[in-house]
Write a structure and sequence with these properties.
The protein has helices at about 40-45, 65-75, 115-125, 150-160, 180-190; strands at about 1-5, 15-20, 40, 85-90, 130-135, 165-170. With about 200 residues, it is α/β, with parallel strands linked by helices. The protein has one domain (about 30-190): Alpha-Beta Barrel (TIM Barrel). A four-stranded parallel beta sheet has the order 3-4-5-6. A two-stranded antiparallel sheet has the order 1-2. The protein is globular. The model is unreliable at about 1-10, about 10-20 and about 50-60 (pLDDT under 50). GO terms for molecular function: alpha-galactosidase activity. Homodimer. Belongs to the glycosyl hydrolase 27 family.
Length: about 200
Amino acid sequence: MFLAFQQHNPKAHTGLEINLHFSTSALDNGLALTPTMGWLHWERFMCNIDCDECIRSSCIEIFSSCLFMEMADVMVKVGWKDAGCEFVCIDDCWPSHKRDTQGRLQTDPKRFPSGIKKLADYVHAKGLKLGIYADIGTSTCAGYPGSLGYYDIDAKTFADWGVDLLKFYRRFMPDWHQLGEGRSICKSQQYTDRF
């Protein structure tokens, strides 16, 4: 980052013009050209893990595919999409606690009975994009499966589902030297052309 101060009016002693110049590097693939703007469920809904204790009639109405479909509808209806908000993002607590027999992440069957692909199709039909949370370590913040050791298969799974954005945490990484594993995630994602 380069920071330059310049007097706005040389005859006045007040008012400075600040020019900020940032140096960045990124893949030249046309992705992430602007800041990510959209809606993320975490601040309001978090996990709401105990579906039997929900105030509403079912967990489906609390934190589920229905919530994200409803939010996509609202984003279009009230003008968020027209204002540049394009992402509907799922945070932690969406997966099952176990991977399938091929090692792929699975959705929680109560929260996402039709899977992420159907949700992504719905969000895309609204002209929006779907984002999802994962962790580069052994588990997510809430204890669901992390991507450590599964970067290639997880990148392919997310791409197959139609996910457009990945929000990765580094919570449960066994050693700091393994932070370089993040590069493996990027390499795994490069072949997908999705995120």
